[in-house]
Amino acid sequence: MKKYKLLSLIATLFAGFALTACSDFLDAKNKTAGGQTAEEFFSKDASSLLVSAYSSMKSIVFSPDLFCRGTDLYIHTRGQATTVFDTFTMTAEDNTVKSFYSNVYKTINYANGVISYAGADSQLGQEARFLRAYGYYLLTQHFGGVPYVTKYINDAETSYPRTPLADIYQSVIEDLTDLYNNSNLAAQDHTGRASKQSVAALLAKVYLAAGWDIDTSLGDAAQGTYTVNSTEKFTQAAAWAEKAINGINLTMSFEDKWSPFNEGNAEEIFSIQYERNGYGGDISEGGHSMQNNFGGYYGPYNAGGIKNVGSNDQQSEKSMYLFEQGDNRYEATYMTMMYNAEKDASGQAAWGTQGYYAYYNVADKSKLDICKKYFPYYYTEAQVESWIQENKARLVVDSKYANQDVRVSLLTLPRVTTWVFAIDKDNPDGDAKITKSTTALLDYNNQTSNGVCVKKFDDASSDYTDTNNDYRDIVLFHVSDMYLIAAEAYLMAGQTAQALAKVNAVRGRAGLAALNAFNNYAPQYSTSASFSVTPLDVILDERARELYAEGHRWMDLRRSKQLVRYNLEFSKEYVKSVAQMSNAKGEIKWYRPIPANEISANTGINMEDQNPGY
Questions:
Q1: How far apart are CA 412 and CA 439, in angstroms?
Q2: Cα 337 from chain centroid (whole Å)
Q3: Quick one: average pLDDT of 184-194?
Q4: 543-593 pLDDT, tens per residue?
Q5: Please, what is the average pLDDT of the chain?
């Protein structure tokens, strides 16, 4: 399948710009088009500007800082520093927040430019309207009300007042509904372009967020209690999620769904596209680095043959317990077995068909020697010992290999048992010496090779470059996400049976038994006596398993008013009290701070417009 390539010379003409500093945006000379100004060029053909709008999304669609940290699922190990996002100590001067805010508006302004030049009802304008709506969805989830700008900023205007959140939701919903009903967008698209299916998916998410933000009232933040004042938006969210699902059943295996050889599959609704073949620049720098996140450190990657991961955003203890026995998503989400690689003459590891990526590139892996194997908590030591005996011939320690010891680990939480195979110094020509030890989870987390890594973003064609060599598409909307959006919306609309049916459809694909009722759910992780599992928790846990590491968790918890409750219960190493998530006046930090540079440059807002908590 030919991808819609998001590469353009036009995209290189423009540097980043802030919302209030765009007056010279159209003054750039387009040297590829006979010296025309951008105004002259795009008035004739705005397609390149649309490509720039799509391409600009690469800088906003995934940030572990913003989308994952400060939740119940991820921790930092091996001395990796706790971030301000884990501890809710970020300020309005934070560079990550500032860049995100600016980059989202950059996408919005590109989209507004396409609409301005091509017309809102043209094919180009319709795609741009979808991208603009997605930009405002992200802004509302992270910042609440923001300046809602639908004109192309190409002048010296610096006053853009903050728009009430309810008004933004209403405008986005009206625009997307018109797109779905009256546009000539394709029904579906798996090449990275907007479609009616992706419009429906975004409408489902916007309606769900609006229902929570506009039509529910917070009770006790620490208890996560709330009151539903109207179910209208939740009913609409469920209906649009059903349109996005479009009758697609979850029959594809979870492993196949996330295979690097199955991009653009039938469950994918919208993704940000990357293309290694034909990339015009340095291939080692043209991708992204998502495969280098969410896991431990396994030694020097180029010498060891294992991908470079840095011990940030590893499994929290709760997430270790999330996957119950029989859930096939565990093996499909995490790399539980890594293969050894022979060293070449320079001491570097063979790459691709040996080492980590042999998992993807070797059809028959039964003859490959193993260097790391990880077992989840529901295995027993006796089962692991039996596995070791069955696979002892492949647990080889040899000077030809990059990894000079072999490790097998079992999560016997809250401790970890590890079998280490190493050269027996007293008998170097004999079998490897096996040392078995049990350590506390905290101590294990400070070791090398301290657990599984996420494989959802793995690029089987990667070389040993450590960053920006991942050309996997980043999937933003997919069908099982819509099943769970529908489940949450049905639950909030009071349609419990429909909510449970959607949850059970997701569980069924995972190989798990259906729940007869929400209160039949029995999580494996432990909770305090004051934490009672609710139907909403069941859905949030299902989203944690199905969407692990995809960048939804912080928005899920903020939206559902569970952000404080989950941090107090499951992130005690980072968050000790409600006060830590609040300012001196007791205002909780439900949103990110509006960047200080935006407040100082935008004459339409002032310090009184800053979000509560900052």
A1: 9
A2: 23
A3: 97
A4: 999 999 999 999 999 999 999 999 999 999 999 999 999 999 999 999 999
A5: 92
Q: How many residues does the chain have?
A: 614
Tell me how far apart the alpha carbons of residues 444 and 413 are, in angstroms, rounded to a whole number: 11
Which residues does residue 335 pair with via DSSP β-bridges, in sequence order?
453
Amino acid occupying residue 202? L
Task: Quote the CA–CA distance of 118 and 134 in Å, as a whole number.
Answer: 19
Q: What gap in Å lies between CA 447 and CA 206, rounded to an integer?
A: 42
The β-bridge partners of 184 are: none
Two tokens at 330?
């565990």
CB 43 within 8 A of CB 82: no
Q: How far is CA 533 from CA 53, 249, 308, 524, 528, in A?
A: 42, 28, 37, 12, 11
Rounded percentage of the chain residues whose pLDDT exceeds 70:
92
Nearest to 64 by CA among 314, 282, 277: 314
| Secondary-structure percent of the chain, ordered helix, strand, coil, rounded to 5 | 40, 10, 50
CA 602 to chain centre: 31
Is 373 in contact with 491 (CB distance < 8 Å)? Answer: no
Specify the pTM. 0.94
**Which residue, among 395, 307, 405, 304, has the nearest Cα to 349 in the 3D structure?**
304
Are 28 and 298 a contacting pair, CB within 8 Å? no
CA angle 448, 545, 590 (to 5 degrees): 90
479 backbone dihedrals φ, ψ, rounded to 5°: -70, -45
Structure token digits, residue 13 = 């003409």
Given a cut of 70, is residue 73 above it in pLDDT? yes
Angle CA 250–273–185, to nearest 5 = 70
- Cα 393 to Cα 408: distance, rounded to the nearest angstrom: 14
The confidence band for 5, taking pLDDT boundaries of 50, 70 and 90, is: very low
